[in-house]
Specification:
This is RNase H type-1 domain-containing protein. By secondary structure, the chain is an alpha/beta fold. The protein is built from 4 helices and 6 strands. A hairpin with a 2-residue loop joins β2 and β3. The longest helix has 19 residues.
Length: 148
């Protein structure tokens, strides 16, 4: 069921430090206005793992909230490519296969979802969550938040 025909956008980003420490963040916008965000520390074994965890959290949230249509932006070209291919992402690194397969599966089940690669410097809005994620966890909404 489609709640609203307004277009949503979601920017996700992940960061990684040595010793399994990482952070993730995503920002959801509707008609250019911030409507939801999340930043959190994550356990990750590599930079691509942190990116995949961020995208997976974002896509789970959007699907659960029935925010359609939605375009997802990531600075990971690998995740964007693997999530949009027609066949399952069998060539994904085994350390992130579970996350990337789940992203791909949700994308395929939701035809109103699309994933786009943007170079790192163009994903300004997700940087705060990515940088602060390892130190705090926060989920929030900006009001008013209405659904039709």
């Amino acid at each position: 069921m489609v709640i609203n025909c307004m277009k949503y956008t979601c920017m996700s980003d992940g960061s990684w430090k040595e010793r399994w420490q990482g952070g993730m963040g995503f920002l959801v916008k509707k008609k250019g206005q911030r409507s939801a965000y999340k930043a959190a520390g994550v356990v990750a074994c590599s930079p691509i793992h942190a990116e995949a965890r961020a995208m997976r959290e974002a896509i789970r949230y959007i699907a659960e909230m029935n925010y359609y249509p939605c375009t997802f932006y990531t600075d990971s070209q690998k995740i964007a490519t693997l999530s949009m291919q027609h066949q399952p992402p069998l060539m994904a690194d085994w350390t992130v296969f579970k996350e990337i397969y789940e992203i791909w599966d949700i994308m395929k089940r939701n035809t109103y979802f699309h994933c786009v690669y943007l170079p790192r410097e163009q994903i300004e809005l997700a940087k705060k969550g990515r940088m602060e994620g390892p130190t705090w966890s926060n989920t929030g909404f900006t009001f008013p938040m209405f659904s039709d």
